[in-house]
Amino acid sequence: MDTQVEELIDRIKRDGVAAAENSASLKISQAEKEAEKILQDARNKADSILNQAKEESEKFKKAGEDAVKQAGRNLLISFRDSVTKELSSLVTGEIEKVYSPEMLQKLIPEVVKEWAKNSSVNELSVLLNSNQLSDVESGLKSLLKTEIEKGLVLKVDDSVVSGFRIGVKNGSAFYDYSAEAVAELFCAYLNPKVSALMKEAAR
Questions:
Q1: Which long-range contacts (CB under 8 A, 24 or more apart) does 136-139 make?
Q2: How confident is the model at residue 154, as a pLDDT?
């Protein structure tokens, strides 16, 4: 009887231990799986954070590079515009100096006579500012005596800072030999040259 009880107790113990061991083993296995999942999630999150950080770093780097390039372009454009402005001012100033009374008395008769080949002189007028006209009027009247007798008119136009304009009296057509107009012709040639020099310097 005692033996049977002992065997029963032993079997209960064995069964209990086995059940406990199985339960513990199952719990350990579940804990390991859970731990592995947590670890994998942590790795994934870390990778995601790292990738995001790299992307942000690349974006920041590119934004910085783009900002430097844009600043460089702005500087070159500003420099080019400054050089162009200085050249335009220089060209205009030099052309104004060239339009001395002597030069005007030489140029105007030549232009009038050329124009008169294709147009009636009595339709023509020569426009100068009041100061320059007073300087050259007597000389021009002498040099263009025949043309003036045929109807050529010398007129004041103070919108012409320096130089002269010549055209038909009704204003439908004229040639502009003012310092500003001639300077524009020069600058139209100079500006592309300046731009080309700036581009070459930027390389």
A1: 136/101, 136/104, 136/105, 136/108, 139/101, 139/105
A2: 92
Retrieve residue 160's tokens.
């012409």
Give the range among 18-32, 49-63, 112-126 with minimum mean pLDDT: 18-32
pLDDT of residue 79: 60
Give the C-alpha separation, 5 to 1, whole Å.
6
Can you give the pTM of this predicted structure?
Answer: 0.48
Beta strands in the chain (DSSP E): 124-128, 153-156, 163-168, 174-178
The angle formed by the CA atoms of residues 142, 145 and 149, to the nearest 5 degrees, is: 150
Query: Is the separation of the CB atoms in 160 and 130 below 8 Å?
Result: no
Burial-class residue 111 by CB neighbours within 10 Å (0-12, 13-18, 19+). Answer: middle
Rounded Cα–Cα distance for residues 117 and 53 (Å): 80
